[in-house]
Design a protein that fits this description.
Helix content is 46%, strand content 0%. It has helices spanning 23-41, 50-58, 64-81. Helix 1 crosses helix 2 (50-58) and helix 2 (50-58) packs antiparallel against helix 3 (64-81). The protein is elongated.
C-alpha cells in the first residue's frame, strides 16, 4: 500500500500577490477606488453612480469648484429620485452691480 499525498486546491479566488490582502489593505484599496471615482465624476455627474455622487457631496467644503460639483451632484440625485426641482441659475450679467454708474 502506498501513501500518496493528494493536494486539493483551495476554494475561492487566488490572491493577487504572495498572500491574501488584510482587511485594512482591502478597505484602503476601496477608499482609493472611491476617491478616484469621485474625482473622475466631476463634470459628469449625470452618468455617475449614487455612491460617487454621495462622495462628491462629502467634499463640499474643499473649494469653490467642489461646491459647484456638489451642487450638480445634489441636482442629479434630486432629478433621479424626484425630490429636487432644478431651476435656472441667476446669470451674473442680469444682477445689478453696486459699481455701475
Amino acid at each position: 500500500m502506498t501513501d500518496e499525498h493528494v493536494s486539493v486546491p483551495k476554494r475561492g479566488r487566488p490572491p493577487k500577490g504572495d498572500k491574501a490582502m488584510s482587511a485594512a489593505a482591502r478597505k484602503r484599496a476601496q477608499r482609493m477606488r472611491d476617491s478616484r471615482a469621485a474625482i473622475d465624476a466631476v463634470g459628469d455627474e449625470q452618468n455617475a453612480s449614487l455612491r460617487v455622487l454621495l462622495a462628491i457631496l462629502r467634499r463640499l467644503e474643499s473649494s469653490e469648484p467642489a461646491r459647484l460639483s456638489a451642487r450638480r451632484a445634489w441636482s442629479e440625485i434630486g432629478r433621479r429620485y424626484g425630490f429636487v426641482s432644478v431651476t435656472e441659475q441667476a446669470c451674473v450679467e442680469r444682477t445689478p452691480s453696486r459699481n455701475k454708474e
